[in-house]
């Protein structure tokens, strides 16, 4: 493919995505359906922009699924994964086993050999990680009980693919390779020729290697790269990490998605988690989009039109069987009715692994073309139906049952946990953070200086590495749920940029900003930030207060003088902020304010104590007592 | 209609059972201003001009606070010292507050019976409040009997509920000028003056 062809193709894909996804979202259909429809439209059975290369694109775009699992892993700390072990093994295991048995039984009834029936059962028991996770995440349902259960099952399925690949050769009813199917994943690997025990060892070694490397090698490496300050280098390192794991896993015959997921979990506790997330996310989004488009384009309408009843019957039948199993299992596992329905409506499609397994099965001599061709069509079609099924669940089914579960979380705890994001954790930010922590508020800290991140982490603080002015990083840090954003970064430009980004995307956040000079304070005030703090003001006033004391003021008198001064000073800043627009007016106004200040200070000097706190000043009272004779009206300070 | 200013003082409202409920029940009425002194002046640096303007803008000044050591919380004293200036609030030319009314809304931990000659606290509330009464007199204001919420240590949630409802009613009556003037001048406490009115109203 020359570069012009490549660009033309990219143009078609991007165009389809840019046009169809916003329309689909606008109609409330979700982005997945938008991509799928775009694929159908530009595919061989639509406008025909895309021909036979659709299959290649599909395989390439599957890398998007790998990236997605990496991101999912990053979100999942090991402790959370451990807590999910029961649903993963129990619910996930039962789902795969029961679905396999039911479908294999049905396949036996329609006359398949038991080997083929078992293979079909296993293949059809899998669901689509990509479509389900993307759809649930977009709807904000991933954190619900049904969403978590779906996730657990998908995770188990990803693991289950490995023994399935190992089992297929044993199910062969004719010599492998006869059907001449293309090589599937894991078919020919480096270790394929090794004895079984060495293969097992290699697989275990790869998994342990990923975990150990993630813990002891990747973090210092990322730290070194972060210290160069080149953002694109960090992005390159992140991609390198994921691609490297993908290759390693493919070589030992494991699922790459599983490997990157593992790496993600290992790195979930690291300070670079947010940075990795925001670097990988754009790639993941684009590739997943491409993947969905390719699925849409690969729906073989010719085959469907040739045997419409068979294919549609097949799709609906499979969905019905899987739905039944899912719903029953979720009820057995004590999910609420609404969550069970969500779970069952989310997972009844056939997953993208089916493409791989179907061709692998053909190649291994387990299945033949007469079975796989209609199944391939059914897989794509069932995936395309998933967003529609979720839509039916959301619009038709859920409104009819009374117990719609709110995302099950104690609102207070979360509120408190995510209440404050602190951007910049130098002297200034860390003081704010320590005060809040000392009073029981959890803070999320974003810091760009990787050396500082290292140091603070050694001290046991929860600090993340990243440029807080990026929208995506703010989003991953939970800005959408936070109440306060403390801006304590090191430059006025960054502060202003951050304030604007936050205001635009997270209008619910209350912003507290550190300012440097007077002008920075004006800029922030004019940008609509109400809580502005000039960093030198308070310490200067404290110093001034001490100076007053050394000059003979009583402590309380000095403290009150400083406070009065500060109030006046803040009023000045606010008044001036309105005038900054017109530079000339601003300069004049500044001069005027300085004149004002000077006059006020001089006035203070001239009649110290007369204007302030005159309630404590007995002068006028003494005059009146001497003249008028109001006797001992109130205890006044004796002169 | 009377414009009512509530000068509220509680140094630890977050620990309060009674006042927090009272404040939450505050009616939204035109001319009723709630002014939380500890919230406005955490460093006791009271803005005298602003406070004087607030006084000028209202007809009835309510001092609402818990009764600490037979007196007000310290910020009220600070407020009096600074805001009630000679030549403004009192003195031969100090007439800014003339004709306005002042009263206290006070909570006490001990019950009513302890604030008696033969009780644990040996003095009546009216006696202990005499500095406030005299302050009002010196500022040429009408002093109204205090409204008391007593025995708060033993109050149940239901009691607090009722106290909050009555508080709400009281502020509405003050605001609407519904309370009989003669009762106000002769009663020992505002509670006594309102005794007949409670029964006339349907209360929760």
Which helices and strands occur, and which strands form pairs?
The complex is a heterodimer of chains A (639) and B (204).
Chain A: H1 3-26, H2 31-42, H3 54-75, H4 78-83, H5 85-109, H6 114-125, H7 129-139, H8 145-167, H9 196-228, H10 231-252, H11 256-267, H12 273-297, H13 301-306, H14 308-332, H15 337-346, H16 353-363, H17 369-397, H18 411-417, E1 420-423, H19 427-438, E2 443-447, H20 450-458, E3 463-465, H21 471-476, E4 484-487, H22 492-505, E5 510-515, H23 518-526, E6 531-534, H24 537-550, H25 555-577, H26 583-606, H27 619-627
Parallel strand pairs in A: 1-2, 1-4, 2-3, 4-5, 5-6
Chain B: E1 4-8, H1 18-24, E2 32-36, H2 37-40, H3 48-56, E3 60-66, H4 74-83, E4 101-108, H5 125-128, H6 130-138, E5 142-143, E6 147-150, H7 157-176, H8 181-186, H9 190-200
Parallel strand pairs in B: 1-2, 1-3, 3-4, 4-5, 4-6
Q: In percent, how much strand structure appears in the residues of chain B?
A: 15-25%
Estimated helix fraction of chain A: 55-70%
Termini separation of chain B: 25 Å
- Main sheet of chain A? 6 strands, parallel
The strand count of chain A comes to 6
Write down the Rg of chain B: 16 Å
The helix-and-strand class of chain A reads mainly alpha
Quaternary status: heterodimer
Helical segment count of chain A: 27
Could you report the average pLDDT of chain B, rounded to the nearest whole number? 92
Please mark out the parts of chain A with pLDDT under 50 across 5 or more consecutive residues, or reply none.
Answer: 178-188, 402-416, 629-633, 635-639
Largest interface: A-B, 16 and 15 residues
Please tell me what the overall shape of chain A is.
elongated
Task: Indicate the low-confidence ranges of chain B by residue numbers.
Answer: none
Helix content of chain B: 25-40%
Tell me the fraction of residues in β-strands of chain A, as a range.
under 5%
Number of helices of chain B: 9
Distance between the termini of chain A: 98 Å
């Amino acid at each position: 493919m020359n570069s012009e062809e490549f660009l033309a193709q990219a143009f078609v894909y991007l165009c389809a995505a840019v046009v169809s996804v916003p329309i689909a979202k606008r109609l409330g259909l979700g982005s997945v359906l938008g991509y799928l429809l775009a694929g159908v439209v530009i595919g061989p059975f639509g406008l025909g922009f895309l021909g036979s290369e659709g299959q290649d694109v599909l395989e390439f775009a599957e890398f998007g699924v790998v990236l997605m699992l990496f991101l999912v892993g990053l979100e999942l700390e090991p402790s959370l994964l451990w807590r999910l072990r029961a649903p993963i093994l129990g619910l996930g295991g039962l789902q795969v086993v029961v679905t396999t048995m039911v479908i294999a039984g049905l396949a036996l009834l329609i006359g398949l050999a038991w080997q083929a029936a078992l293979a079909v059962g296993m293949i059809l028991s899998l669901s689509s990680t990509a479509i389900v996770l993307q759809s649930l995440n977009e709807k904000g349902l991933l954190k619900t009980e049904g969403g978590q259960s779906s996730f657990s099952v998908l995770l188990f399925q990803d693991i289950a693919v490995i023994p399935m690949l190992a089992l297929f050769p044993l199910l062969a009813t004719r010599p492998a390779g006869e059907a001449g199917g293309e090589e599937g994943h894991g078919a020919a690997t480096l270790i394929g020729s090794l004895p079984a025990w060495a293969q097992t060892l290699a697989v275990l070694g790869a998994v342990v290697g990923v975990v150990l490397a993630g813990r002891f090698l990747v973090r210092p490496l990322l730290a070194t790269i972060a210290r160069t300050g080149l953002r694109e280098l960090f992005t390159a390192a992140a991609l390198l990490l994921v691609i490297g794991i993908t290759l390693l896993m493919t070589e030992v015959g494991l699922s790459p998605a599983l490997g990157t997921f593992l790496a993600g979990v290992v790195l979930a506790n690291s300070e670079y988690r947010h940075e990795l997330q925001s670097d990988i996310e754009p790639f993941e989004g684009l590739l997943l989009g491409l993947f969905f488009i390719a699925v849409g384009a690969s729906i073989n309408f010719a085959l469907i039109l040739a045997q419409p009843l068979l294919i549609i019957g097949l799709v609906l039948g499979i969905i019905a069987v899987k739905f039944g199993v899912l719903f029953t299992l979720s009820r057995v596992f004590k999910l609420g009715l609404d969550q069970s329905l969500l779970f069952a409506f989310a997972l009844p499609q056939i997953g993208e692994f089916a493409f791989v397994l179907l061709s692998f099965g053909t190649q291994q001599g387990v299945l033949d073309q007469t079975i796989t061709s209609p199944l391939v069509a059914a897989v794509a079609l069932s995936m395309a139906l998933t967003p529609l099924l979720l839509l039916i669940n959301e619009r038709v089914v859920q409104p009819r049952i009374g117990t719609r579960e709110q995302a099950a979380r104690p609102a207070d705890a979360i509120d408190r946990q995510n209440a404050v994001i602190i951007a910049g954790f130098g002297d200034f930010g860390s003081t704010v953070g320590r005060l809040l922590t000392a009073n029981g508020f959890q803070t999320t800290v974003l810091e760009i200086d990787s050396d500082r991140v290292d140091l603070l982490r050694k001290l046991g603080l929860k600090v993340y590495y990243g440029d807080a002015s990026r929208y995506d990083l703010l989003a991953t840090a939970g800005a959408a749920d936070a109440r306060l954003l403390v801006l304590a970064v090191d430059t006025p430009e960054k502060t202003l940029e951050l304030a604007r980004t936050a205001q635009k995307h997270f209008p619910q956040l209350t912003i507290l900003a550190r300012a440097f000079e007077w002008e920075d304070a004006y800029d922030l005030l004019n940008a609509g930030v109400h809580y502005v703090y000039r960093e030198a003001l308070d310490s200067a006033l404290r110093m001034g207060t001490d100076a007053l004391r050394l000059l003979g003021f009583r402590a309380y008198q000095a403290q009150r003088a400083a406070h009065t001064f500060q109030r006046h000073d803040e009023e000045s800043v606010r008044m001036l902020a309105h005038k900054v627009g017109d530079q000339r007016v601003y300069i004049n106004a500044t001069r005027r304010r300085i004149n004002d200040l000077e006059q006020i200070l001089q006035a203070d000097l001239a009649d110290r104590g007369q204007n302030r706190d005159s309630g404590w000043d007995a002068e006028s009272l003494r005059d009146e007592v001497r003249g008028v004779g109001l006797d001992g009206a109130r205890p006044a300070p004796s002169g | 209609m009377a414009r009512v200013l509530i000068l509220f003082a509680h140094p630890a409202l977050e620990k309060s059972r009674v006042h927090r409920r009272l404040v939450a029940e505050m009616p939204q009425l035109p001319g009723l201003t709630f002014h939380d002194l500890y919230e406005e002046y955490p460093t006791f640096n009271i803005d005298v001009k602003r406070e004087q303007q607030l006084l000028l803008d209202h007809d009835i000044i309510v001092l609402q606070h818990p009764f600490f050591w037979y007196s007000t919380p310290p910020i009220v004293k600070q407020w009096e010292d600074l805001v009630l200036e000679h030549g403004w609030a009192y003195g031969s030319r100090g007439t800014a507050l003339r004709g306005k009314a002042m009263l206290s809304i006070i909570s006490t931990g001990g019950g009513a019976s302890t604030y008696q000659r033969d009780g644990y606290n040996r003095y009546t509330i009216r006696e202990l409040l005499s500095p406030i009464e005299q302050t009002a007199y010196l500022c040429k204001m009408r002093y109204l009997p205090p409204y008391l919420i007593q025995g708060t240590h033993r109050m149940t949630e239901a009691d607090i509920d009722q106290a909050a409802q009555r508080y709400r009613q009281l502020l509405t009556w003050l605001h609407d000028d519904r309370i009989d003037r003669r009762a106000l001048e002769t009663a020992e406490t505002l509670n006594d003056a309102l005794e007949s009115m409670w029964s006339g109203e349907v209360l929760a």
